[in-house]
C-alpha cells in the first residue's frame, strides 16, 4: 500500500452522465498527477498540480474534464457528459519535491465503464 | 510516433532463465528514466530508476544509452513472480511521466 487512495475503485455509468473521482495523496506530497490508462497501453498524463495550482494539462483533457485540488491536499477529477471512449482506468499519483526526478507513487486507480 | 516505444511481447521465459528487453525514447532532453512494474489490473509500481552508468538491483540490471536514446532491463534467474508488464518510463524536467505501452513477461515453470 503506497498510501495514495482513490475513490471509488469502480464506477459504471451511462453515457451522458457526469462522474467525479477523488484522490487522496500521501499527506506530505506537494505534487499530484492524474493519468488515464486504457487496455494494452501505458498510462497517459492528463494533468498535474503543485500544491493547489494546476500547472499543466494534456491536450487529452477535453473541456468535459476538470480537475481541482482546492486546498492542496485531495484532488477531484470530474468528467461531464461521459462518452464510451472515456472508459479507462484513471490513476492518481503523488510525489514530493520540486524537481522531476522524485518518485511518483500511484494509487489503485478508478476503473470507469461507460455504457 | 510515440514518445516511448516498447516491444509488447510477450516474452515467455523459463523459470531460472535470463530475459532482456529495451525501449526507445524520442525526447533527447529527457531528464530521468525508470522501469515500473504493473501486475494485471493493478497500479504501476516503481521497479528501479535507471542511471547513466547503469545500475543493478538484485537480479535486475538497467542500462541507459543516451546517445542512442534507449533503455534496457535485464532480469536474471527469472522467478514465477516476475511475470508482469514492465513499463519503460521517461521523465521530463518537471515530472510528467511518459510511459511506454509495456512489455509483457511470462515466466513459466
Describe this structure in words.
The complex is a heterodimer of chains A (115) and B (109). With 115 residues, chain A is mainly β. Chain A contains no helices and eleven strands. In chain A, the strands form two sheets. In chain A, strands 2, 4, 5, 6, 9, 10 and 11 form a seven-stranded mixed beta sheet that branches. A four-stranded antiparallel beta sheet of chain A has the order 1-3-8-7, with no helix packed on it. In chain A, a hairpin with a 2-residue loop joins strand 5 (44-50) and strand 6 (53-57). The model of chain A has no long low-confidence stretch (mean pLDDT 92). Chain B has 109 residues and is mainly beta. Helices cover 0% and strands 54% of the residues of chain B. Chain B contains no helices and eleven strands. Chain B has strands at residues 4-6, 11-14, 19-25, 32-38, 45-50, 55-57, 60-65, 70-75, 84-91, 97-99, 103-108. In chain B, the strands form two sheets. In chain B, strands 2, 4, 5, 9, 10 and 11 form a six-stranded mixed beta sheet that branches. A five-stranded antiparallel beta sheet of chain B has the order 1-3-8-7-6, with no helix packed on it. In chain B, a hairpin with a 6-residue loop joins strand 4 and strand 5 (45-50). Chain B starts with a strand and ends with a strand. Classes of the chains: A mainly beta (115), B mainly beta (109).
